[in-house]
Design goal:
Helices cover 35% and strands 18% of the residues. It has a seven-stranded mixed β-sheet, sandwiched between helices. The chain is α/β, with parallel strands linked by helices. The relative contact order is 0.11.
Length: 286
């Protein structure tokens, strides 16, 4: 099967033409900023490693710039797009892809990815800013572990990416740092200047790559998420104050030998894991 008028992946129209033909001006309400530089998109598609014969899950493909790069890399792509305006353009790309692109219209937050994707799929996405963190946290706290995904390659605002890889004691260290690092290995793969987007956002973006690691024994993601949400929700306060509202948390601190006068940003990932492990035995959280 070929796309309209014999279009194939080798002779696709430029993305700017696709955007104009389908009236796909980026919508701020959907957190859209389109990346059109083919070389840069190919660099992002190379971050997960070889994708030939692999399945990739993409969220928010928009006009299909990153989708094209993933297809060029040899992947089979399942893409979820909430913006109905983009679906005709993506349908044309699916025809040109000859069976290697499936497009699902809908909200990514409502998808059951584990049910609709084969095991060990890769997530590669220029995540819409307004839902990116929520999706990322969901993927990081997936159960069972190892998760349904083999790797995450996602674009975020640079300051969010820095939080994901931050070390204890730094200003950027917080809830996302712990959730990303307790059973996976995150790194910043590359920065993307604001000028590369249409329209240019106000900030620089970064591509994060995350690979699952072994999970600590007897620790549940929802419990750790509850602990970090409470601890960093009032990060300037001592733990005895920030964790007071979480049943069993202060007893868990004591059981781990952690001084309740400390603040959240001073605890290591391992210490947070220890608190969550004990709390899981003391409280019905999660």
């Amino acid at each position: 099967m070929r796309g309209p008028a014999g279009v194939t992946l080798d002779n696709l129209p430029p993305l700017r033409e696709i955007i104009a033909a389908h009236s796909l001006a980026a919508k701020k309400s959907l957190g859209q900023n389109f990346l059109l530089d083919g070389n840069l998109l190919d660099r992002i598609a190379r971050v997960p490693g070889k994708l030939v014969g692999q399945t990739v899950y993409e969220v928010g493909p928009g006009p299909g710039g990153l989708t094209r790069a993933l297809l060029r890399a040899g992947a089979t792509v399942v893409a979820v797009e909430r913006d109905d305006r983009a679906l005709p353009a993506l349908a044309e790309l699916a025809e040109a892809a000859e069976g290697r692109l499936t497009v699902i219209g809908g909200d990514a937050l409502r998808q059951d990815e584990a049910a609709m994707l084969p095991p060990a799929a890769h997530i590669v996405a220029n995540l819409p800013y307004n839902i990116g963190t929520a999706l990322f946290v969901r993927w990081l706290t997936a159960e069972p572990w190892p998760p349904w995904w083999a790797s995450l390659t996602c674009m975020f605002q640079k300051e969010v990416a820095q939080r994901i890889v931050a070390a204890p004691g730094s200003d950027a260290y917080g809830r996302l740092s712990v959730l990303a690092q307790w059973r996976s290995t995150p790194r910043i793969a590359l920065d993307v200047p604001r000028q590369a987007f249409t329209p240019p956002p106000k900030i620089t973006s970064s591509v994060i790559h995350v690979v699952p690691a072994a999970a600590p024994d007897d620790v549940r993601g929802p419990v750790l998420e509850a602990v970090t949400a409470a601890a960093f929700g009032q990060r300037r306060k001592m733990l005895r104050a920030s964790l007071r509202g979480l049943p069993g948390a202060l007893n868990a601190l004591a059981a781990c030998g952690i001084d309740s006068a400390r603040r959240a940003e001073t605890l290591s990932v391992a210490e947070f894991v220890g608190v969550a492990r004990v709390l899981g035995t003391l409280s019905p959280v999660g």
